[in-house]
Design goal:
65% of the residues lie in helices and 11% in strands. With 161 residues, it is mostly helical. Strands 1-2 form a two-stranded antiparallel ribbon. Strands 3-4 form a two-stranded parallel ribbon.
């Protein structure tokens, strides 16, 4: 972090005159929004894969009740292929296991990204719109909401909508 701060600090101090070192409020917000979007895309991918697992489970349960020598059709690479149930069932179960492992990996990555987001929020004192209302911090959130257009001030947080 120290290397990043010093390199961005020298750039911002050269361009801003006497402004404090570190990224500008706009850069902080942009980075925060990018990190949030990455986390959202991971969550949507995990949800999509969960639906795939549910579909696989439904098909596996259906095929278990069918005669293993019965023919069935499977879509492979956009091509419908005729196989038997005993050939397709193990492949479906294997696919289901692989998808489960991928979901676990994505969930781990989402947790890591969540920790990074929390650390980033704490480092730059970022508050989301509507966050902290009704608590003791509601007044400070309202005051920063009023001064949102003022740029970054020493000790002032960044408000993200």
């Amino acid at each position: 972090m120290a290397a990043n701060s010093s390199s961005t600090g020298s750039k911002s101090s050269n361009s801003a005159g006497g402004k404090q070192s570190g990224p500008s409020a706009e850069q902080v917000v942009a980075t925060f929004q990018k990190m949030r979007q990455e986390q959202r895309s991971m969550a949507s991918k995990a949800a999509e894969l969960e639906m795939d697992i549910n579909e696989h489970s439904l098909v596996v349960d259906t095929l278990k009740e069918v005669d293993p020598s019965r023919k069935c059709f499977r879509l492979v690479g956009g091509v419908l292929v005729e196989r038997t149930v005993k050939e397709v069932l193990p492949a479906l179960e294997n696919n289901k296991e692989q998808i489960s492992k991928i979901i676990e990996s994505i969930n781990t990555q989402m947790q890591t990204k969540g920790r990074e987001l929390t650390e980033y929020r704490e480092r730059y004192n970022i508050r989301l719109v509507g966050e902290g209302e009704g608590e003791a911090q509601g007044q400070s959130a309202a005051s920063s909401r009023d001064s949102e257009g003022g740029g970054s001030k020493g000790g002032a947080g960044v408000l993200v909508s």
